[in-house]
Design a protein that fits this description.
Layout (H helix, E strand, L loop, with lengths): L1 H6 L14 E4 L12 E4 L5 H5 L8 E10 L10 E7 L2 E7 L5 E6 L4 E8 L7 E8 L9 E5 L2 E2 L3 E5 L16 E4 L12 E10 L9 E3 L6 E3 L11 E3 L32 E2 L31 E3 L6 E5 L8 E7 L10 E8 L16 E5 L7 E2 L2 E2 L2 H5 L12 E7 L4 E6 L2 E9 L3 H6 L4 E8 L2 E5 L30 E2 L2 H7 L1
Parallel strand pairs: 20-30
Antiparallel strand pairs: 1-13, 1-17, 2-12, 3-8, 3-13, 4-5, 4-12, 5-6, 6-7, 7-11, 8-9, 9-10, 13-16, 14-15, 18-29, 19-28, 20-25, 20-29, 21-22, 21-28, 23-24, 25-26, 26-27
Amino acid sequence: METLQRTANRGSVSTGYDVDNSIMFTTTGNYADSGSYFYDVIASSEGWAANSNAGTNARKCTVSTWVKRTRLIESSHYPRIFSYRAGGVAFDCFFDVTNNQLTMYDDNTSMSLKTNRVFRDTSAWYHIVIAVDQTQSTAANRVKVYINGVQETSWATEDYGNQNVDLSAFRAAGTNVYVGGAANDASAYFNGYISEYHFIDGAQLAQTDFGEFDSDTGIWIPKKFTGSYGTLGHYYNFTVASDMGKDFSGNGNDCNNRGDGITNGAARQATDTPTNNFCTLALQVRAGTQNHVSPSASGGTMIPMSGVNQFDAFFGTIGVTQGKWFWEFYVPSRSGSYGLLNYVGLHNLKTIPASANAVGGTSQCYWIMHYGDYNATTNGSNTGQNTAAGLPSEGTGAVGRTFGVAFNADDGQITFYNNGSVTGNAGIDIFDLHDDMANGDFTLPSFTVYDNNLNVNFGGYSSVAITSGNTDANGYGNFEYAVPSGYYALCSRNLSEFG
């Protein structure tokens, strides 16, 4: 377990340093943009430009940031985590679209690195540190890369760049600064969350300046950076919804959101962070009725299935065996051709073979919205208990409504809510699910969708605007309707207490 924890941060549960916010990036979703990124062109009137040629040290820098991926199926455009570009040269970092290897390059120094390791975990946060010192005589010391506190030493591509060459991509008055996109490729959008973005000018720092291993769990966690940022340094923590590009380094190197897809910064602010990791939609589960995998959108909170003539099943990234948990979903539309057919509830992944769909299996509880039908299954077959169980029947009138799911894993019961009020029976027994969980089988949120979009809100980010704002009793999550008493958002901090 120690190896797994050190490989990918799944959200620390008790730290001395809390990260409050991240920013969500997406290429598709509920907002009217073809892709989102966060950038600025440094103009002559800005502080950065005025100091750019007199930076702290032209051959040293460090970038530290946390990322959580929510899409692995990408176009041929490499989704940039960050990109700096000036005078035709760039310093970029991204995940390779073919094999999901972390890749970085600098045009001016000729540095080019690509990991052998792949990064396909969409349930976890990764901490990436790239520390550069082009004055080093030993090539491998010129660029040091750390992932979750461990230095990368195994490379598919390994060129540390030329010695004593300036990092000119950072240093011109016309520098393009991109987070979640690229200066030279308008389609190179990152999909996921980025948090705690530090750029240090003039120093090659260690990973321990930004993070540490938790003494109890061994998980790599963030810590407060207390060093100097240098003249051109900047730090974006995304805590000000009205000014997501505010620089907290003290240098005033704000990123002013120019020309990007983010027309409303608050619409991109999230509470899903490396110190409180929220459930999102899992990606690497093939559970449709054909050979088809639909990626989620909008930070793993939207199912884009409109126009897809088949079932696809989506599951949450967090499973439980105990505790009381709450999440919401929103029905934005119905298909004119196929009505409204959504199976919503819970699923136990042990019953899904690699080549089968997810409509059968042990210990399911599905709510079907389709012309008044509803259903529940046990041991993989319909038992007729659905009518007596009192599962809700919403039909196509569900469009435009927000529904809540309250899952009592301690008692093996589920309750559904329609715009804040119980719909169907409260505390519906889910047959043999309770016994399965007692045997250690994890149960996850489940959404099976046919030719319709669906928006899901686990509390860390919502792809539908929240107009009221409600948290659980611990103060976590952001929901449209009040969280039922005793129920909690599916996030790492709540799991440490109740999971």
